[in-house]
Amino acid sequence: MCRWLAYVGEPRLIEEFLYEGPHSLTEQAQHSHKAKLGVHGDGGGLGWYGKPATPGLYRDAGPAWADPNLRELTRVIESHVFFAHVRASTGAPNLGVNCHPFRAGNWLFMHNGQIGGFHQIRRKLFAMLSDTGFNSIVGGTDSEVLFQLMIGNGLYDDPQFAMRRTVEDVDKLRRAEGIKEAFRATLAVTDGKAIYALRWASDKAAPSLYLNRMQNGALAVSEPLDEDLLSWWAVPANSLLHIRYGSDGTVVEHREAFIETSAA
Fold first, then answer.
1. Is residue 144 part of a domain?
2. How far is it, in rounded angstroms, from Cα 68 to Cα 132?
3. Please, which residues bridge with residue 252 across strands?
4. Is the pLDDT of residue 170 over 70?
5. Which of the four pLDDT bands, split at 50, 70 and 90, describes residue 264?
6. What's the domain range around 31?
């Protein structure tokens, strides 16, 4: 499993969230409290927005806590929207192309979890992609396939619909193939204006997701960055969040129920 964070709000130095504090993202990569795997050393990545509409992207297959280039970038980059991710592989090789976030145009995507039975249905999932989506895949993760399926389902025009439709399609295929292994996901997408974050699973064990409505911004994370439990709201399973930073300096957050799980 993986650990990730997504920020929207007034521009902040990214270093603050990746390296500072008692349970920063790079600390989580070494000592996770909420994940099945305590160490997440199979790569890391960063996606951020500046003046261009297309976000910057940095990914490396090495352990994030030992990456001097990541440390140097986060020390000087301020951004109003950014994603950061540390990876613990569930099967795909430890390569840079398999590290999150993934980028398409001015959109970013990242994911924690896995499609149960992915290799059993991988070819059929590929068949659901457009030629453009298929040709855009360069790695071997189920996460990248999910991203391209969402794009094909209208992510650029209606993110909530695309996320819902994609999860429904994948779960329906899993059930048709008789796969018992669960499909679990916390994932996030952004166009640099708003963050859409999902916590969902086909069983009753959805990966953790928390939200912190901080001063002049909001932070969605796999697990809290500190021990101030009153600041972190545990997002319920089967929930889709839409988080936007308003022009008046306030966080606008909307939660809606996602599709029902297929678990009995």
1. yes
2. 35
3. 244
4. yes
5. very low
6. 3-257
Digit-coded pLDDT (tens) for 205-252: 999 999 999 889 999 999 999 988 889 999 999 999 999 998 777 788
CB contact at 8 A, 149 and 129: yes
How many folded domains does the chain comprise?
A: 1
Q: What is the mean pLDDT of the chain?
A: 90
263 lies in some domain: no
What are the phi and psi torsion angles at 96 (to 5°)?
-60, -35
H/E segment holding residue 255: strand 251-257
Q: How far apart are CA 63 and CA 148, in angstroms?
A: 26
| CA–CA separation, 113 and 236 (whole Å) | 16
Give CA–CA dist 94/88, Å, rounded. Answer: 9
Q: Is 2 a catalytic residue?
A: yes
Residues 126-166 pLDDT 10s: 999 999 999 999 999 999 999 999 999 999 999 999 999 99
Q: Are 106 and 156 in contact (CB under 8 A)?
A: no
Q: What does pTM read for this prediction?
A: 0.93
* pLDDT, mean of residues 191-198: 96
Structure tokens, 121: 């249905």
Residues 6+ apart with CB under 8 A from 125: 115, 118, 145, 149, 170, 173
DSSP 180-215: -S-EEEEEEEE-SSEEEEEEEESSS-PPP-EEE--T
Q: Which of 204, 205, 226, 206 minimizes the C-alpha distance to 214?
A: 226
Spatial separation of the C-alpha atoms in residues 27 and 15, rounded to whole Å: 12
Give the CATH number, domain containing residue 244. Answer: 3.60.20.10
Tell me the average pLDDT across 118-129. Answer: 96
Distance CA 45, CA 151 (A): 21
